[in-house]
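Hi U.,

Before I forget, here's the chain from the pilot set. I'm dumping it here mostly so it's searchable later in email.
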Amino acid sequence: MKRGALLLVVLIAAAVAAFFIAWDGPKNPPQRTLDDSAFVLDGRSTTCTALFRKPCDYETQLEYNRRGTDLDTFVDSTDLGPWGNSLPFADAAELALQACVYSRTAGMTVLEFIELGQRAHPDAGSVELTPFWNKARQELCATPWQ
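Structure:
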C-alpha cells in the first residue's frame, strides 16, 4: 500500500514537472505598441520619437498621444521659472511630458522625476525641475475627479 501511494506521488510530481517544463510560457511576450502620432509642436509636425530623439516606450507614447494636442500651448504659455522658460522648446516639452508619465506611475514621486531630469540636464536642481512637475500635474495632465 505504501509503495502504491509513493508511486502515485512520484507520478503526480513528474506530471506536474513535465507540464511546467513544456508550458514555460512565451519566450518573448508580445510587445504592446501604439501609433507614433504627430502633433504640431513649435510650428512643426512632431512625433514622440522625434521629440525624444529615440523610440518612445509604451507609457511615454501613451502620454504623448493623450497630451500632444495641448503640449505646444502648455510649453509656450506656462511659467516654468527662469531656467525652464529659457530651455529650448523640445527640452521643455520633453520634461513636461515626462512629469506626466512619472506622476501616473505607481511609486514615482517628484524625487524620481528630479533624478530623471538631472540626467538630461545636470545643471538643473530641484528648484529648476519642480515647476515642471507641479505645472504639468496641475495643467497638462490633470485629471478631474469623477
